[in-house]
Every structure is written in structure tokens, then in C-alpha cells.
Write a structure and sequence with these properties.
Its cofactor is pyridoxal 5'-phosphate. By secondary structure, the chain is α/β, with parallel strands linked by helices. The chain is built from 14 helices and 15 strands. The chain binds pyridoxal-5'-phosphate (PLP).
């Protein structure tokens, strides 16, 4: 690994001279309350280390929900961004730009798929795939107008737009936001028979996360992804894999579907594709499927902008070396072993693949939030999900000793 987690070189400058507590108070007053952040105000970061306004240092075990797979301030990605900032940053797709061709080529080489639709956020990639799948169903599969169905999995997380929350089953994500977009059928996750029973002549696609991240890092049984591939192939249905969180090295392979040697028809990338610098997402897919989109039918002012393409290409360059995947795999074994030792000592169960784990905390030891707060006080940042689960997903460049230290903190917090 060439990238090391360098230490912040200078003390943090308190923002505008205000303390963390003062900044949090202003946020409370002036920001929409759609988040409940841990009470840490980050002022700078490098590698897997972040530093708050007062200069307290923490290890980042969340990595921006995997948007920071390559670490804070990754020098290769920063250099790509800096160079591009001075040349050209935005053209819109009304004109070509000299970074987009290379970005699309690199994504094709990385994924084994043909064609890229560049977007910005993950939710936009999901929305785009929904539109492509529906259009493909009408134009290619011959589904009657307005009848296309997309099969999704219970417990899914695909983003926050009105259409996407229409097929969420999380009441917090949905309640109060209807009316909802029709055309989605929910089946249990990790249940091939349920998908088989749900597929009908109007089914355009099956849309799943190869590992359900927000649900608590739920890993399907071996054979599930290959089974979805086989079922969709046999029934002339598209397989859309949402790898916005699971992809780009996190699980020890470039894509989580590669654990079962599966190639979906449409692949959704986001988060780490922007290197933690700019929002970059993409639908990467089979040329014949992507071909249903024609000029004017879909777009984005910022999608495929030269800065995004330059950073995205540099991200692909990092993955082409295989170093990050290898590191996720090796450190993943360390993570797995340490978590195994905590089962029965505050941990009820955990699931891990690569450098990614969902850890179910025994409620007798505290809620996920309480454990996260206690870990924060001890200098380690994690995030709870679904009450009693905490998620561990450090930057893939984290040093082994830092990972061991952070897991020691978890152990200490659970030991009281
Ligand atoms: C984060 C996430 C999204 C949404 O991405 P945004 O950039 O937040 O819109 C979609 N799918 C999965 C699996 C995600 O983890």
C-alpha cells in the first residue's frame, strides 16, 4: 500500500473562532433536522484520521458510508482533482469534454460492461436505472404501456427520492411522503423462490443490493446472486445490481457480485466513485439495454462533468492496481477475527465481508447510538443503524494497527 494514513500536520483552526458546541448549536437552529449526527465537528482529515475543531483526533470507521474508500485526502485523487480544477470543470453535455471518453472506457474495463451513463448522486443512478429498465421493457420486451414492474427486496436502501422511497419498506423513510410511484413489487431479501414467483410477463427488472448495507450489512447466502442472474436470464428480465455502497473495493473484490462471478445487466456505482471529493455516480450496463436512451430522453447538467470524470478515472486507476481490494480482503480477515472474539461479550452477532461489518450489539450493553457515542468519546467514529447495529467500514487505506486499536476501543466500550 503506497497510501499511508498521514497525521494531520497542523492544529485545526477553530472555524470562525467558534467551538464545536457553538457550531452544533448553530446547526440545530439553521439546518433542517433530517440527520442526527454524532456530536463531533470535523475540521480536517487525512487517510483514516479526522480531527475536530478543538484538535481532538479520531479514527474514521464509517468512511462517509464508503464514499471515502480510498481515504480522506488521498494524494492521487487530490492531484487528479487539482489538475482538472485548473483546466476545465464543467461543460454540460451540450458539448463534449476531453475527460469523459477515458472515464467511460475505464469503467468498461473495470466492470466488464459496455456503456456508461454518468450521473452525480447514487439516487440519480437508481432513478436512471428505473427509467432505463422501464423503457427497455416497453421497447424490447414488449410489455404493455404503463405496465412495467420492477422487483425489489425487503429492507432495501436505494436512496431518498420520491420514487425510491416508494419502494422502501422503512416507515421512517416513507411516512408523510406519499403519494408513491407505482410499479414495484417487494419480495423478501435472500429468497430466490420469492423472486421466481414474483417474475411475470410485465417484469422489467430485479433490483437488489448484493449486500444490504443500510439494513445492517446483510450478506445473502452463497448462490443467491448467481441464482438471481440465472433466473433473470431465463425469464428475459434485467438484473440491476446496486453496488453504490458495496462496490469499488469495499468487500475485497472490485464488485460484490464478483464473489459469485456474476455480471449484472445494469450496475449502479456511486459513493466511492467520486473519491470523497465530488459526487459521481454511474449506471454501467449492456450496450443493447443502455441503447434505449436517445437524445433528450434523460440527462443531468452536472453528470459527466470534466472534474467528476477526472476524479472518477483516477478512482478506477486506483482499483486497477488491485491493491485496495487486496487490502480490504486482508484487513477484512483481521476484522472478522476480532469481531468473532466479541460474540457473547456484548456482540450478539455480526456479518462481515471484506472491510465491512454490521455488528449487532446486545441491548443490555446499550443501544447502537450509545455505543457509537462511547466510542466517539474514546476517539473512534462509527454509526449505528436500526437501533442496535453498528456499522464498521473504515477507509481501505487504514493501517492495521489503527484498525486493531479501533476494535480494541469497541471491546473496551463493551467491557464497560
Ligand atoms: C447511499 C446509497 C444510495 C444513495 O446514494 P446517494 O448518493 O446518497 O443518493 C443508493 N443505494 C445504496 C445501496 C446506497 O448505499
Amino acid at each position: 500500500m503506497t497510501v499511508t494514513a498521514a497525521q494531520p500536520s497542523q492544529p485545526a483552526q477553530p472555524s470562525g473562532g467558534r467551538s464545536s458546541a457553538e457550531l452544533i448549536a448553530v446547526e440545530e437552529a439553521k439546518l433542517a433536522h433530517n440527520y442526527h449526527p454524532l456530536p463531533v465537528v470535523v475540521a480536517r482529515a487525512q487517510g483514516a484520521h479526522v480531527e475536530d475543531v478543538e484538535g481532538r483526533r479520531y479514527l474514521d470507521l464509517l468512511a462517509g458510508y464508503s464514499a471515502l474508500n480510498f481515504g480522506h485526502g488521498n494524494p492521487v485523487l487530490l492531484e487528479a482533482a487539482h489538475r482538472q480544477l485548473d483546466r476545465v470543470t464543467l461543460t454540460s453535455r451540450a458539448f463534449h469534454n476531453d475527460r469523459l471518453a477515458g472515464f467511460a472506457e475505464s469503467l468498461a474495463d473495470l466492470t466488464g460492461l459496455d456503456t456508461t451513463l454518468p450521473m452525480n448522486t447514487g439516487a440519480e443512478a437508481v432513478e436512471s436505472a428505473v427509467k432505463i429498465a422501464r423503457k427497455w421493457a416497453y421497447e424490447v420486451k414488449g410489455v404493455a404501456p404503463g405496465q412495467a414492474e420492477i422487483i425489489v427486496a425487503a429492507g432495501n436502501f436505494h436512496g431518498r427520492t420520491t420514487t425510491i422511497v416508494s419502494f422502501s419498506d422503512d416507515p421512517t423513510a416513507r411516512t408523510g411522503f406519499g403519494p408513491f410511484t407505482p410499479g414495484f413489487t417487494t419480495v423478501p431479501y435472500n429468497d430466490l423462490a420469492a423472486i421466481e414467483a414474483a417474475i411475470g410477463e410485465n417484469t422489467a427488472a430485479v433490483l437488489i443490493e448484493p449486500i444490504q448495507g443500510e439494513a445492517g450489512v446483510l450478506i445473502p447466502h452463497d448462490g443467491y446472486l448467481a441464482g438471481v442472474r440465472e433466473l433473470t436470464r431465463r425469464t428475459g428480465t434485467l438484473f440491476i445490481a446496486d453496488e453504490i455502497q458495496s462496490g469499488l473495493g469495499r468487500t475485497g473484490t472490485t464488485l460484490a457480485v464478483q464473489h459469485e462471478s456474476v455480471l449484472p445487466d445494469l450496475l449502479l456505482l456511486g459513493k466511492a466513485l467520486g473519491g470523497g471529493i465530488v459526487p459521481v455516480s454511474a449506471v454501467v450496463g449492456r450496450a443493447d439495454v443502455m441503447g434505449v436512451l436517445r437524445p433528450g430522453e434523460h440527462g443531468s447538467t452536472f453528470g459527466g462533468n470534466p472534474l467528476a470524470a477526472a476524479v472518477g478515472s483516477a478512482v478506477v486507476g486506483l482499483l486497477e492496481t488491485g491493491e485496495y481490494q487486496q487490502r480490504a480482503k486482508e484487513l477484512g480477515e483481521v476484522l472478522d477475527a476480532r469481531l468473532a472474539a466479541l460474540v457473547g461479550r456484548g456482540v450478539v452477532a455480526y456479518r462481515a465481508r471484506g472491510l465491512w461489518a454490521g455488528v449487532d450489539i446486545d441491548p443490555a450493553f446499550g443501544t447502537g447510538r450509545e455505543i457509537s457515542e462511547r466510542m466517539m468519546a474514546a476517539g473512534v467514529l462509527v454509526k449505528d443503524t436500526h437501533g442496535s447495529t453498528i456499522r464498521i467500514a473504515p477507509p481501505l487505506c487504514i493501517e492495521e494497527e489503527d484498525l486493531l486499536h479501533a476494535l480494541g476501543v469497541l471491546e473496551g466500550v463493551l467491557a464497560g
